């Protein structure tokens, strides 16, 4: 009896002691899972390639993906948004500064806080490829650059009019699937991505990912070769089709996703089956190393904030620089504090010609009498 | 700024301002001016001013502590040694004849003019980088500004800030008339304000209402100024002018309120602002017979702006009683009577293209002087792209159907693909007259890669700028002191009898001869077909040989031949 009591007491004490140990194990496992995907930052490149008012739906497509990506955490500084034409403030838009995705104007995907990096005539094949490969002129501002590194997961979304093996940019030029594949290979060789998800919503979209040959690429398209992607529904007040079918159902799917959701890529492949989309969406995962079932949606659409827990103390006190004092007299008073005459007529009339570049006719300066 | 009413008195407390300037070297003021227009439309002008006592350009000092002044602009100023920067984004065209003169004018599209410091050695290089950096800050395609649309005016655009020397080698001016303004330009503009769009007057800036208007213009003006002219400070002014149309925003009813215009009401002033005020122009409504203004305010103010003395009702948002019981301030203007005709603006300009066909044309600029007896000089600046080749020998300036010779002409001819035309003329406008400036041009053929993706839309020519010193009706104040409201103290005044005004004309849309872009494909197909047919036929003629080939005989003939062979008789052919 005593021995039995001792045994149960020992077991009980052992259990009590091991609970925190099991809990910390559990936490470490969770933390381990957290760090398993291998990327540390997320980028998104969203491109709409069509111009003119009747291509409203392509801009709405891109903006709805932009909205989802922002909602799931990717900040504007990590999104390169390229819109080939302006629909929101277009003079034909009956509700200015809005772009709707659902008919009866239910959802304004344009919103109040949007930053478009490349707009209008800047959306060209050359600029797109330069953004991807990073070969931009030195004076390009940061917001127009894709500053990814080898631990970045990049989402690339293209929409517009396309055909078998090409995508049309602004009705005047096109990008071919070989060019795109080569651009991705350049990115791989320069270690500009960790994993890349490529989504395209155009007619015959699957032809655009046929030629990829770089590792760690996953691609989705809205239709197979020989099929057209169709638009969803028109709005009679605005007068144009508002969204394409594939992106419409993709938006509906992404609205259910929240930053902590565990939805994976297999769910994304099931978005918009043929019964809803009329075209057959396709996907390509053979170049991707991980199993798509273990890839979270938020690995590409959301943003990762890695937190490293440390137990060391860090000393934060540093010597503060003294406040910048103005140097009182001296430089300030050399330049006299006066304003310039805005239209000095007499001075203008007697102005001498600038050397070499122009000539000026000087007259006596008397005003004409009437 | 005088307060004629004995009831309301706001003490500007100079001692208090001096005190706060010692501890925080900078201040922020915001104001909103509402001016009802005669056509039933309403004009709202926001002005935000940040003052900062520092010197970006001083050698050896690196400014790193930014409080009210936005860091992005501060870094731009110090990196490119900018003395003055003026950038504006406008949607719509300001209709002077219906709306009068704006407080701060701007042309349609984007306009950028910059004065660099005279220590800069490579102004063009700095200009190119500056436009790229600004295109990133404001999400606009300012990187399209290059040497083909930049000009160096020789007499217009004198600096609006402090300065002595005006060497025009350090001035650059460019406009992009095609630039679209939308929420993506407003978002970063709002983020430059100290309170952002979260408190103060900026909460009213909702893009859905602001862009559904007849005219929308947002601008940033940075220049050095002097406060009480004892010390130098940097001034950042952000202005937003918007005109709401009676029929589209007002639903046809002559009744305006802050909620109707902006779909928001004011709940508090920006806590970082030293002054936050709303002014309503009641000059045409002295006894309240034209429109009714509520909530009533005892504060009145007068200011001399654009040559006229105007009376304003003032609402001070830093006082809690302005917001009333509901803690929300919604201004209401209800029209009672019909307003008469508007006073004609003294200076007005128009521009149009005349001619027919796609080869030649004529640009006409018409400037009206509506003053009954005073003549005044105007400086007309025209910047025309190189592909409209101007014939300056056809330039004529006529007033009242007589030749009017300008007292100063500066013309810089264009260089193909390098530089646009620049034409500046100082013209004396006779009183109550119309002056017409005409010049003929020829359209150039562009290379096929130089066309935009939608060339049949046409090509834009930027607005002409007419700068003038217009005689004012009341004496202007030359003392540029602190206590004037922001909207009346933008342009420095040098003499009392006239005020400086800038008028922009319409931009022109010109069609250039556009090729058929499918022609290269057509030519290749046709040429290849011709070559294939021609060469193929020739090759066949030379190398083809003919052989006689007998057809196989039918069955009956074959049987007959078989029998004949057996009989030993000659065969049938």
From TrEMBL, chain A:
InterPro entries to which the protein is assigned, alphabetical: GPI_transamidase, Peptidase_C13
Q: Does the keyword Signal apply?
A: yes
Q: Which GO terms describe its molecular function?
A: GPI-anchor transamidase activity
Signal peptide range equals 1-24
Give any single GO term for biological process: GPI anchor biosynthetic process
Keywords of this entry = GPI-anchor biosynthesis, Signal
Its GO CC terms are: GPI-anchor transamidase complex
The pathway entry for this protein reads as: Glycolipid biosynthesis; glycosylphosphatidylinositol-anchor biosynthesis
Q: What are the positions of the active site?
A: 161, 203 (nucleophile)
- Name the protein family: Belongs to the peptidase C13 family.
Subunit structure, as described in the record: Heteropentamer. Part of the GPI-anchor transamidase complex, consisting of PIGK, PIGT, PIGS, PIGU and GAA1. Interacts with GPAA1. Interacts with PIGT; this interaction, via a disulfide link, stabilizes the expression of GAA1 and PIGK and links them to PIGS.
Q: What is this protein called?
A: GPI-anchor transamidase
Q: What is the lineage of its organism?
A: Eukaryota, Metazoa, Chordata, Craniata, Vertebrata
Automatic annotation (TrEMBL), chain B:
Q: Which organism is it from?
A: Cyprinus carpio (Common carp)
Top-level lineage group:
Eukaryota
Gene giving rise to this polypeptide: LOC109080311
Q: Which InterPro entries match?
A: PIG-T (IPR007245)
Q: What is this protein called?
A: Phosphatidylinositol glycan anchor biosynthesis, class T
Q: Which GO terms describe its biological process?
A: attachment of GPI anchor to protein
Give the UniProt entry's GO cellular component terms. Answer: GPI-anchor transamidase complex
